[in-house]
């Protein structure tokens, strides 16, 4: 009986060693290049000059701002976001006169 009790006590105190296997692929030193999905063109960022005015209190405040965006529509959205966050102006209170691509 003493043999059985010894085998039980040693099995509880000793834990089996885990093998240290790395699951990460080895770095070959080359950076992976991202490929654009088939049929999609990558758009370049452009600088747009947006001019207009917005309601501030009882008067209209003029503004002219340079925005980096992919297109004219996105430049307009960025103006609405910027004026709304800085001056608490709603979209209906912003009047955009012109959006031109900067040279």
| Residue share in β-strands | 25-35%
Radius of gyration: 32 Å
Q: Averaging pLDDT over every residue, what do you get?
A: 82
CATH class division of the domain at 44-103:
Alpha Beta
Instruction: State the strand order across the main sheet.
Output: 2-1-3
CATH architecture of the domain at 44-103: Roll
What's the story with the biggest beta sheet? 3 strands, antiparallel
Count of DSSP helices?
2
| Span of the ends, CA to CA | 93 Å
Per the CATH scheme, the topology name of the domain at 44-103 is Ubiquitin-like (UB roll)
Q: How much helical structure, as a percent, in the residues?
A: 25-40%
Secondary-structure-based class equals: alpha+beta
Regions with pLDDT < 50 over 5+ consecutive residues? Answer: none
- Find the count of extended strands (DSSP E, 2+ residues): 3
Which H/E pattern describes the elements?
HEEHE
The best one-word shape is elongated
């Amino acid at each position: 009986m003493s043999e059985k009790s010894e085998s039980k006590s040693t099995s509880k105190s000793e834990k089996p060693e885990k093998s240290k296997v790395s699951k990460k692929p080895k770095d070959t030193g080359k950076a992976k290049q991202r490929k654009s999905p088939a049929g999609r063109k990558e758009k370049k960022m452009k600088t747009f000059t947006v001019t207009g005015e917005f309601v501030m209190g009882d008067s209209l405040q003029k503004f002219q701002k340079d925005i980096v965006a992919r297109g004219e529509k996105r430049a307009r959205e960025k103006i609405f976001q910027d004026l709304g966050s800085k001056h608490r102006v709603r979209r209906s209170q912003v009047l955009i006169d012109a959006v031109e691509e900067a040279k």
